[in-house]
Structures are given as structure tokens and as C-alpha cells.
Write a structure and sequence with these properties.
- This is Cytidine deaminase-like protein.
- InterPro entries: CMP_dCMP_dom, Cytidine_deaminase-like.
- It comes from Apiospora arundinis.
- By secondary structure, the chain is an alpha/beta fold.
- Strand 1 and strand 2 form a beta hairpin.
- It is globular.
- Strands 2-1-3-4-5 form a 5-stranded mixed β-sheet.
- 46% of the residues lie in helices and 13% in strands.
- The structure holds zinc ion.
- The site of zinc ion (ZN) has 7 residues, from helix 4 and helix 6.
Length: 196
Amino acid sequence: MSANDKFPAEANDGGGSAASLLPSLFPERAPMTPAQLAAGVEAALAVQRRAVTFGKRPFAAVLLAPDNETVLLSHQSVDQVNHAESSLARLAYCHYDKAFLWRCTLVSTWEPCGMCTATIYWAHIGRIVFAGSNDQLYELTGPGNKENFTMDWHTRDVLKGCPQKDIEVIGPLEAEGKIVVEESDKYWGPTRRSHS
Ligand SMILES: [Zn+2]
């Protein structure tokens, strides 16, 4: 049996087969406006700025409520294993139930890595927004950077392997991403140069 037999194409259609089997866990999400996207990224960026002052790497995420505006939780990067997004997703799953989280949005300054995207999937958070892309991050960190051996995974790549849930992904964001790149490079620049 191939993967396609197990996960038929219609599983990607309108919330996936899981949504048709368990509709109460997949309530409709309110679309995000450009202003809500910008405000969400700015909230995450404020967490990132503070994290850097504590010597943490420039990554941060916030969880927005179903109104797309209220910040319910936030998390900075703790270390190379406890990333901002996966830490936030685990925390969110402790606080809220699946049906509620499906209508929430995780907003990250940077594109969630493979580990974080998978954790967001398991936490049942229905939407991911990110500003800077993984490719941009690799440009900032460079190769052989002991502070971040950047993966070549993309959020959408990981979710292609998760057809049962139609998690919405918005990003990278051009204007917001530019700000995130510029601010994050203040941290990555010296680490990158030390390895060149
Ligand atoms: Zn991560």
C-alpha cells in the first residue's frame, strides 16, 4: 500500500479527512487581516528583542487567540533544543483544548523548523504565521555556525507529510521579514563572521 492509499487526496481538501470525521475538533478559523498579521509579528518581535538582551538567540513566537489579536502566550528561544515555537506549542497544549487551539494562530519571527512544525501539528494549532524564511536564516547564520546549524526543511515541506490536518501557513512576509532579518543580523553577524 502506498502513502497515497493511506492518505487519499481528499484528505487535503477543506480541513482533511480528520475534519470530516471529527468536525468538532476543526471549527472554522477567522481569516487574518494584514493589520493583524503585522501586529502579531510585532508582538513576537518584542519578545525576540527582549530575549536577545538576556543572551538568547533571536527567535520568538506568540500564540494569538481566535480573535487573531489577543496574545495568549509567548515564548522565546531557550536553547538549541528548546526552540521558541515548539516550547510555545507544548505550553499551549497544556493550557487549552484542541477545538480552541485549532482557531488560534502561532506567530513566529522566523519560519518554524522541522521539529517545531511537527510539534505545532501535534498541538493542533490551526494556523502558522512567520516573517523571516528559513532560507534567509541560513544566509544570516552561514554554514558551520555552532549557534545554529540551520536545517534545510521548510514548514510547508513538513506539513506535506501531515495531510490529515489542513494547517494554514502564512509566510514569509516581505515587509515584516525584512525587519526581522535586519534586527536578527545584529546577533548573527558576529557569530557568522567568527566562522568565516
Ligand atoms: Zn524549531
